[in-house]
Design a protein that fits this description.
Rossmann fold; 217 residues; alpha/beta; single chain; 12 strands; 30% helix
Length: 217
């Protein structure tokens, strides 16, 4: 399953446009907040497909019957640009458990690179709903490697991969290298991917725009 939010006319597109806009990107606080807001909207959409059960809630004047999420949720963040994105998901699934994965590009002199997984902190995932957050799904390799690392801690009931912008190639790679009980949610899909694996038109380096430039390893 694949869900693309910017196909519809919603306020989501306003936040996404600000993050793409070079005249606005210099405000890193605004960029982080927009990442968080987009993740909140994506989380609201994900909430519609979870399992619910009816519960009685006592009000000052009586009893209200309310359908509440019965699934146990784990939110996994791919560091570092995923941190504010993760926070946006956690704002809505505030009772969730949390996992963290360090994935980075190991660059070579010939211009190529490998994706390395360096750190993993994760609760038991058995029969839970796993939400994996990474703002940019470029080649899809980081998402797939993070997923494979995470499921060493248990097999989830269902996995939701959540991104702000994906390339067509990244979506197809993620779909073809993960099982059928996975769903991809993205804000938008761009067709082009450069030789350096940057999405075009994309928005640039989400990590640098969020936290400042880094020295490549």
């Amino acid at each position: 399953m694949l869900h693309v939010l910017n196909k519809n006319n919603t306020i989501f597109n306003h936040f996404l446009a600000e993050m793409r806009d070079t005249s606005i990107q210099g405000d890193s606080m605004r960029f982080r907040r927009n990442l968080e807001r987009c993740a909140e909207i994506l989380s609201y959409e994900i909430s519609k497909v979870l399992d619910y059960e009816n519960k009685e809630v006592t009000t000052p004047l009586g009893i209200a019957n309310v359908n509440l999420i019965s699934d146990k949720v784990v939110i996994a963040c791919i560091l570092r640009a995923g941190l504010p994105f993760h926070q946006g998901v956690l704002n809505y699934f505030d009772g969730a458990q949390n996992a963290f994965v360090s994935a980075y590009r190991k660059h070579h002199k010939d211009g190529t690179f490998d994706i390395k997984i360096e750190y993993l902190s994760c609760p038991d995932l058995t029969d839970k709903i796993l939400i994996v957050c990474d703002p940019m799904i470029a080649t899809g390799s980081s998402m797939v490697l993070a997923y494979k690392a995470l499921i060493t801690k248990g097999i989830p009931k269902h996995t939701h991969f959540v991104g702000l912008i994906a390339s067509s190639e990244g979506v197809e790679y993620t779909r073809s290298h993960t099982p059928s009980n996975c769903t991809i949610w993205v804000g938008g899909i761009d067709d082009e991917l450069t030789a350096q694996a940057y999405i075009v038109p994309g928005l640039g380096d989400a990590g640098d725009l969020t936290f400042g430039p880094k020295q490549d390893s």
